[in-house]
Amino acid sequence: MSIPTTNEVRIETSTHCNAGCVFCPWPTDDFTRKKEIMSVDDYKFYVDKVRQELPDQITETTISGFGEAFTDPTLLKKIRYAKSTGIGVHVLTNGSYLTEAIIDELYEMGILSLRVSIHTTNEESYKKVMNYRSNRFTLDKVMKAMDYAIKNKPEETEIVIPPIIVEENRNDVDKLIDDFGDKVSLEIWAPHNWVDKKDYRNKEEPIKHDSCGRPFSGPIQVQVDGDIIMCCFDFNNEMVLGNFKDQTLEEIYSLEEDNLFSKIHQHHSAGTCGESNLACNNCDQLKLTTDIIIYNNRGPTPEERITMVTPGLERIKE
Questions:
Q1: In this structure, how many other beta carbons lie within 10 angstroms of the beta carbon of residue 197?
Q2: CA distance linking residue 60 with residue 256, whole number of Å
Q3: Tens digits of residue pLDDT in 285-296
Q4: What is the three-class DSSP state of 201?
Q5: How far is CA 71 from CA 35, 39, 82, in A?
Q6: 101: alpha, beta or left, given left = phi > 0 and alpha = psi -120 to 50?
Q7: pTM for the predicted model, two decimal places
Q8: In the chain, where do the E strands start and end?
Q9: SS3 state at 169
């Protein structure tokens, strides 16, 4: 079977966002997909289907994708449904919609992790990085919500804060560590290029790795319209493997057909992505080095952490 060995399915519930982060393609002309929210019925359908097709493999799901999760007014209903099927849930958010009531409900449901994108704790920098379209979304509100979340966190739930450091917040790293380093799982990153659409990392740098590991170990990424894509960095769905509404995972990830996944799998297996016409051919994920991790209190060493960030990299290096 060629389905990636992952235990995780990521389901994109919304492509709406209330922010315009400086390092993200969403607020630019590069992002051309429709702004929409997945219906509750569709969400239930995808959760049920993946559990039926991979009952012994998929144990976790992540609320993730190219939008702010809590722009979806039905999000808590979706999380509760996923939990009712016995699957663990990770939630990603910029934190701007979090309230004590929402945090209480997330904790009551027993989510595995709450990942909140707080890129700086400096108010001036925060405004420059986030570029919210409404002044009702403020750093003060987010910090109060996080104080509550940290104080009331159940043992089984992990809080992760993953700041990305760019010019606008480059002087705020020490304060981030002071504010969160001993309270949550903190991993501070240099920005990436969203495959090759941004210019944060040197595009002329040679490819260092045969593969990012995603064709072999996933995760499975279901987009808001049911499309399954190879990689979450493919924000505009350039590499659509199939549609989960109409196809099974076995069909989508088949190596016996002349399909896109077969082509991707072949190039990643042979280490020829750079010679291909895939979006992978100059992807910065194939150039990963440990210096992209500015600070991390989760893994014992940056070298060990990067094998978790890039699925299958340790196996590929052997």
A1: 15
A2: 28
A3: 898 776 788 888
A4: coil
A5: 11, 13, 18
A6: alpha
A7: 0.90
A8: 8-11, 60-63, 88-93, 113-116, 158-161, 185-189, 220-222, 227-229, 240-243, 293-296
A9: helix
Q: Which of 32-46, 85-99, 156-170, 297-311 has the lowest mean pLDDT?
A: 297-311
Place of tokens 């082509």: 263
Cα separation of 208 and 172, whole Å? 30
**The residue type at 96:** S
Give the tens place of pLDDT for each residue, 165-187. 999 999 999 999 999 999 999 99
C-alpha closest to that of 231 among 181, 268, 176, 203: 268
152-183 burial, b if ≥16 CB within 10 A, otherwise e?
A: ebeeebbbbbbbbbbebbeebeeebbebbeee
Question: Buried b / exposed e across 82-117, counting CB within 10 Å, b at 16+?
Answer: bbeeebbbbbbbbbbbbeeebbeebbebebbbbbbb
Nearest Cα to 216, choosing from 273, 254, 265?
Answer: 265
User: Which contiguous run of DSSP H or E holds residue 298?
Assistant: none
CA-based torsion, 147, 149, 154, 160: positive or negative: negative
Query: 3-class SS at 231?
Result: coil
Tokens of 170: 């480059």
Strands 88-93 and 240-243: unpaired
- Residue 191 preceded by cis peptide, ω within 30: no
Task: Please say whether the beta carbons of 247 and 309 come within 8 A.
Answer: no
Q: Using the 8-state DSSP alphabet, how is residue 165 labeled?
A: -
Q: Are strands 60-63 and 88-93 parallel, antiparallel or unpaired?
A: parallel
Amino acid at 190: A
Sheet of 8-11: strands edge to edge? 240-243, 227-229, 220-222, 8-11, 60-63, 88-93, 113-116, 158-161, 185-189, 293-296
